[in-house]
Amino acid sequence: MIDRQTVSRLEEIVGAANVSVADSDRITHSYDATKEQFLPDVVVYAENTEQVRKIARLADTKRIPILPRGAGSGFTGGTLPVHGGIVLVLTRMNTIRAIDSDNLIAVVEPGVITADLQKEVEKLGLFYPPDPASKDFSTLGGNVAECAGGPRCVKYGVTKDFVLGLEVVTASGEIIRTGGQTLKNVVGYDLTKLFVGSEGTLGIVTEITLKLLPKPEAKKTMLVQFETIDGAAGAVSEIIRSRIVPTTLEFLDAATIGCIRDISPIPLPPACRALLIIEVDGDPLLLEKQAQQILSVVQPLGVVDVRIAETPEESEKIWQVRRNVSPSLRKINPDKFNEDIVVPRSKVPDMIRALEKIAAQYQVPIVNFGHAGDGNIHVNVMVDMRQEGMAATVEEVMGKIFTAAVGLNGSLSGEHGIGTSKARFLGMELDTATISYMRAVKKAFDPHNILNPGKIFFEAETKPASVIEYEQEQEA
Amino acid sequence: MSKNKKLKDFEEQIRQCVKCGVCQAHCPAYRLSRREGDVARGKVALAASLLDGGVGLEERLEQNIGMCLLCGSCVNTCPNKVATPEIVAAIRREITDNKGLSLIGKSVSAVTGSRTLMRAVTKGGAVFSPLVLKKVPESSGLRLRFPLPQMEKRTLPKLPLRNLFERVPEFTAGDRDKPVVGFFAGCSITYVYPDVGVAMVNILNQLGYSVHVPRTQKCCGIPALSSGAGTAVEELAENNIAAFGRYDESAVITACASCYGGIGQYYATMEQADNTLSDKVVDFSVFLEKNGVVDMLRTMTPWPKRPRVTYHDPCHLKNHGITAAPRALLRALPNADFVEMEGASLCCGLGGTFSVSHYDASKAIGAAKIEGLRDSGARKVATACPGCIIGLQDSINHAGLEVEAVHILELLAEALTAADRE
Fold first, then answer.
1. What would the DSSP string read from start to end of A369-401?
2. Interface of A with B (CB under 8 A)
3. Which stretches of chain B score pLDDT less than 50?
4. Alpha-carbon distance B97 to B21, whole Å?
5. More confident position, A54 or B232
6. H or E stretch including B281?
7. How near does any CA of chain B get to the CA of A407, in Å?
8. Which of A346, B41, B115, B271 is most buried, by CB atoms within 10 Å?
9. From the CB of residue A24, how many other CB atoms can be counted at a distance below 10 Å?
């Protein structure tokens, strides 16, 4: 609960126009892409590091939770104010401070949209590879908090591989700097890596220094249709064994192909039970050779059809197949539970088979696609939550899926994070001693548990609040 | 009898929002403010909350619901095609039902409902302002200004002496074996850009069509929809549906993207919709391309000195998938050297009454077009919506660019006139 005095103090820090306790503002800052809703007590828009520092100090003194928020497009509840408090919106801290072509780095504020940075650096012939599906609206601050990935990570790595340094406001309102502007830096602990993917539980990132690459000269896109998922998975191994690391290696399983068959711009015959979208980038001369080599290694693996894009339009058509997937899923059922388990590359077929088994056992459609190149599978359990008992079924299905992934030496999440939605499964993957160490780190950084409380580590069930409840509490 | 839907009619649509946030990348209002209350997802969350009683029609909610240009970009990119503009319009009507029309809404509803008043107001120079305006010539005498303090420096086109209805007959006969087509001109073409309307009628006639421009047609209803004047929308829809049909028109052509969105799209979404008009509505660019105009233009010799021309996508065409036909016409024109510009599909910021109620935001949204326009090196920016012409020209004037915003039909008329002379 927040008192009038705190609100006044917040208004002094950021200006009255950037603080709101209005019901409608609390509602529009109560959710993320999980569709869960928890009302914050107050919404604050910060515009610089100094304001963030003062807000943190105030919140720490008053023991009020702070929820740093970017686009609010996360899939695991990372920005949900499960304990109320201050939603600290950083979308207006969106300046690209520097793009340095000599040192191949960019310095940005956390509210910069991923695709906006990519557009700017590409104008200078540079390249920022991480490309989460949400890149057109997700913020780099959010990408850092969740350690976002994307299709291009097979070749280039994920967000943490591109963060050189951070400016962070700590829970007690201090400003610290981690890493720096150089690729090499071994002074002290690597706090940068610790903050990346910490889901806003250790500090509030107010500036990010990113590594850039020269932009690849050209790319080549291919679509290969297979008779079986084993063929597609085998192709992934064969391609990498032939010493080619494609930029992207996306797969769609039979259930997914079934959803898009009617609307696909490229014919997908019934014999096609799995497909790979393969993209390679680099020197145009080399690309031609690589494309031919890829074709020759995948050919013996039960190929139904092969298509190599010769023009940007043809490449666009191939990617359209992939983009058709998400909007089509709801044809099966209205509610989607989207997980992003990851298994070692070679275990993808085993995992798909395990998923098919679970789908049959519980009579729920499970549709799978994703990043075959790094074993990161987007598992979509499609249900109708209006059916009685469905919530319990979904819970069981999720448990089975995670058990299977961990059993194959995989992990609960490749790129979405834990947040609230997977906190209860954390113990499946991490042993008690490891979790205790993580909790100790959290305690050291945030002794009063004000930074995004209720995330990563499971706690007793938190119930969504409603405005009405809030008002009653206020009166009481 | 077509009736506006109520907010509760959208319950299922509202449930379809999966809160993914994709709309943030495409909403002109959000791109400017970066505040969740301004984006479609935020508005849909508020609509859900209004329905379940979690929130009332409070001041901030009204502000958020006000920050929408009804452009439809969010629908176009939404994985579940949630009809946010219709939901926003429904909430605006609820606000009106509760508190009465705003000053803007009152004026829009009075003006757009009446042709006489429309004519009178246009003559007074106030077609886009619901408030009574007077002609204030700038030093050049070519521009009008709105005499509103917050809109000082807004530039508007000079108004013509004779409106479209005074310049073209109600019925122009064409070839016997060709059907009759209707032309829905809309307020802007009728009263501000009658040249565009004259060009449209002439071209259709040259193609052999008989053209019916009913005098009884009124405003499409988009300004009334945008300001929550529900009754006015229903009356206008009924009137316009009745205005056509006398000649069993095979198509009703629009040359204004907003009118296309109104008579061609919105009417069809109403309760007990009468689709006789909507089903016939075709945008002029699509119609002309189908009738071989692009091929015909290609046979003309390109002018040796032709200006570089770029294209601005009107939201109400782009979001209904009409992006290729206008470009095909421009590429084929002998009097234009067509180039694409960066940000062609960004909104001009006008959004009908939005530019009156939120001029500063409108101006800032429009300003985002300037960099791409400047870099393109174009001397003219062509578009397919008179509203966009007004918005674009205002942004251009503020940026001090030497670029003219024109309707594609003006360029087409220029090419055809020159060809006739030869």
1. EEEGGGTEEEEEEEE-TTSTTHHHHHHHHHHHH
2. 20, 22-25, 27-35, 45, 71-73, 89, 91-92, 94, 111, 113, 115, 134, 136-138, 326-327, 330, 334, 336, 466-468
3. 124-150
4. 31
5. A54
6. strand B281-283
7. 31
8. B41
9. 29
